[in-house]
Amino acid sequence: MSIWDQTWTWLTTASHWTGSDGVTGRVAQHLELTAEAVLLAAVVALPVGIALGHFGRGGVLAVNIANVGRAIPTLAVLVLLVLALGLGNAPVIYALALFAAPPMLTNSYLGMSGVDAEIKDAARGTGLSAWQSVRRIEVPLAIPLIAAGVRTATVQVVATATIAALVGSGGLGRFVVDGFQTNDYGQLVGGALLVGLLAVVVEIALGWLEGALTPGRRHLAGTSSPASIDPSMTLPAGASGQAQRSS
Amino acid sequence: MNPWWSADWFTSRSDQILAATRQHVLLTVIAVGIGLALSLPLAVLAHRRPRWRAPVLAVSGVVYTIPSLALFALLVPFTGLSKTTVEIGLVGYTLLILVRNCLTGLANVPADVVEAARGMGYGGLGLLLRVELPLALPAVFGGIRIATVSTIALVTIGAEVSYGGLGRLILEGFQNDYKAEAFGASVLCVGLAVVADLFLLGVQRLATPWRRG
Description:
The complex is a heterodimer.
Chain A: H1 3-11, H2 23-55, H3 59-70, H4 74-85, H5 89-113, H6 117-125, H7 130-163, H8 173-182, H9 185-213, H10 216-221
Chain B: H1 7-12, H2 14-48, H3 53-65, H4 68-79, H5 83-107, H6 111-119, H7 124-155, H8 166-175, H9 179-207
Helix pairs in contact in B: 2-5, 2-7, 2-8, 3-5, 4-5, 5-7, 7-9, 8-9
């Protein structure tokens, strides 16, 4: 039987789809790991990036942290954290969060620091406090970039969560790793197809969601609110959604 | 005794460490080399024929979406558990970075410089080789550096297909609960990336002397 026949057989066997070690269970685990890691990273990285961007401090750190992260293999971080903290979901989520944080930090910094100084002055001039200006004017203006950062981070975590199977974690990577270990090529290739499919679906879904949640440019173009002064802001080319593959 | 650091691991296993490092470097150099050989013509094509821009970027972007472990697995039916499998995957991931950077470099050559060169009689290949590419070199080198550093990190995943360089030792350290090996190999891997980046920075400065000072 060719590998493709084995793959087809594996994918079309009903028992492979149900239960916690079936496809549906593995997808649920994969998405759960991803959601928890992205949430953890967002809670830490977004406030830091927003604060640094608002005060215009630490730009070198915020922009270069992604470059430093690139040199550190995902596998190394996963292995070291699991060796240090023991098997389980927690060390895997910490490791995934470490790789989700840089794009969010960088993008929230760039989004906030890109808000025109005149807009900030105008906001303060109308009697808003610094905190109100951040909350009502600056963060909303930075949302397109922040959202792009969250999307980039999430797509990366979906990919990295696959690697987590190498250190005993659940998720869709399990099929690939188990397939390699048992020379079960049907499971190997079938699992890999599902991983690729999940990655593409998540990427497309988040791109769509981002468009739906940040109608900024469309919406602002027709209004005369201060926000419409320069909706394109001043962004370094390629800063948003800068692709990164370390997993 | 610190379980994470053992000088003994470095000395007693030096042969194996050296072989793994050599494999790591070789896998990286071949991947970035082939990646560049494919990306430069693609970028030139997209630059000269804007119609090709979108398809070229789309094709190099598609590979990027697929997680590495899955990509290696998907290549197994074609190339088996071989070095080729790892190498094809690694090359695939360098494409987006390199094509994008080469294209940016070419697009940022000032239009009046190109005009002046044409006025001096440059055209076609001469214009590309003598004027446009040299001016695009800093951006191209930027791409090579990013691609190299990412590839060094990515090679570790090849351990699943038995060609992972230092990744093999990281995984072995995990499987044997040998912290010093996992940490030592991780440090070597990051060190390799830093050394490679500095080396390429040096080459870049030699290749573009007009940007120094």
